[in-house]
Amino acid sequence: MRRVRLLFLQVLVAVVLMAIWHVGSTYRIPAGVFGAKAFYPLDPFFFSTPIDVFQRTWRDFYTGVIWYHLGITLLETLLAFAIGALGGVLVGFWFARKQLVAAVFDPYVKMANALPRVVLAPIFALWLGLGIWSKVALGVTLVFFIVFFNVYQGVREVSPTVLANARMLGMNERQLMRNVYWPSALTWMFSSLHTAVGFALVGAVVGEYLGSAAGLGYRIHQAEGVFDVTGVFSGMLVLAIFVIIIDTLVSAIENRLLVWRPTAATGLK
């Protein structure tokens, strides 16, 4: 399948969904067809309309209202992503190379990973205040474990035969790390980073939603407080575009660093 065709099909899915939303929220079903009263299949009071959502989003960007909030959320997301991913990579490598350390901390890692992150949000707000760092801390707890488990598994998946051959050829630990362990972990790490980006944003937005004075989560919370459904959907649209842009950047970095990896037979040209 050619990339142009794939892009066309992806855009087509979005157009069809928008068309269903538009028709359902703007055209009434007459009385007597499915009920005694005329009604909208998608009541605009609860679902707004795509035209109103796009107009609100365009107005927010054009007037500059949203830039400040977008910048706050972007900063929180990037900090949570960078700190969580770096911590996950370092600890993942450490645990994978030190089996005794991994065995000692294994139950504590599982306990910490099982904690509901939403429960931690008020605690971080109490410890770190309502500024950006409580949101960053919440995002770090989400990103860290995703990257940690993937890096740990990636290092553990190194073929014993490859490892034995490398040692037989005289590689020291530093060379093994650079030429064997690191390439093995890279594929696992980047596959986790795509998911981690979304979770970093979730941490930032949930933290803003629960207590903040700025950010996209704060704007969505404010819109919900006055039953402004168009504002809520506009905030979600901005978040979706935001994630797509960041994920594209991660994919570009992945393709640059994993240029040696054989291309999967997807049929895309």
Describe the structure.
Belongs to the binding-protein-dependent transport system permease family. It is found in: Cell membrane. This protein is an all-alpha fold. It is built from eleven helices and no strands. The radius of gyration is 24 Å and the shape is elongated.
Helix-strand category: mainly alpha
Helix/strand order, N-terminal first:
HHHHHHHHHHH
- Distance between termini? 7 Å
Low-confidence stretches: none
Estimate the mean pLDDT confidence.
Answer: 85
Shape: elongated
Estimated helix fraction? over 70%
> Tally the helices: what do you get?
11
Tell me the strand percentage band. under 5%
CATH class of the largest domain: Mainly Alpha
Summarize, please.
This is Binding-protein-dependent transport systems inner membrane component. The protein is built from eleven helices and no strands.
Topology:
Elements: H1 3-26, H2 44-47, H3 50-63, H4 65-97, H5 99-114, H6 117-128, H7 132-156, H8 160-168, H9 173-210, H10 216-225, H11 229-257
Helix pairs in contact: 3-11, 4-5, 4-7, 4-9, 4-10, 6-7, 6-9, 7-9, 9-10, 9-11, 10-11
